Amino acid sequence: MEENNTTKNNKLSYEQLEKIALQLQQKLMQANERLSQINLTTLRLDYLFRVVDRADKFPKEFVDKSVEEVINLLEVKEEASDEESPMESTEK
């Protein structure tokens, strides 16, 4: 009988579910945007590596700038992830 009461108390209201769905949709949109940025960066890196591979066909200054950009893109940058999951915000 105690388990029944616990189950009833853990059920979310329609409004809470709607809020969670909206938050998940926003997170999905952000993730898709980030994925698009990563895809563009990957494509750019591919072209930069092609320039470096064929350095003899490009001006030295251009190759040097390409190498510098490759190095900058490949550096690991720490990102703060203080994001809150949708479930955490409804429990507060």
Provide a concise account of the structure shown.
By secondary structure, the chain is mainly alpha-helical. It is 76% helix and 0% strand.
What does the model show?
The chain is mainly alpha-helical and 92 residues long. It is built from 4 helices and no strands. The chain has helices at residues 2-10, 14-53, 60-74, 86-91. Helix 2 runs antiparallel to helix 3 (60-74). The two termini are 27 Å apart. The model has no long low-confidence stretch (mean pLDDT 84).
Task: Please specify the SSE layout and strand pairing.
Blueprint lengths: L1 H9 L3 H40 L6 H15 L11 H6 L1
Helix pairs in contact: 2-3
**Spans where pLDDT lies below 50 across 5 or more residues:** none
Q: What's the total helix number? A: 4
Percent helix range: over 70%
Strand content is under 5%
Largest β-sheet summary: none
SS class: mainly alpha
Tally of extended strands? 0
- Evaluate the radius of gyration: 24 Å
Mean pLDDT: 84
Q: How far do the termini sit from each other?
A: 27 Å
Q: What is the helix/strand order?
A: HHHH
Taken from the alpha-carbon principal axes, the silhouette is: rod-shaped
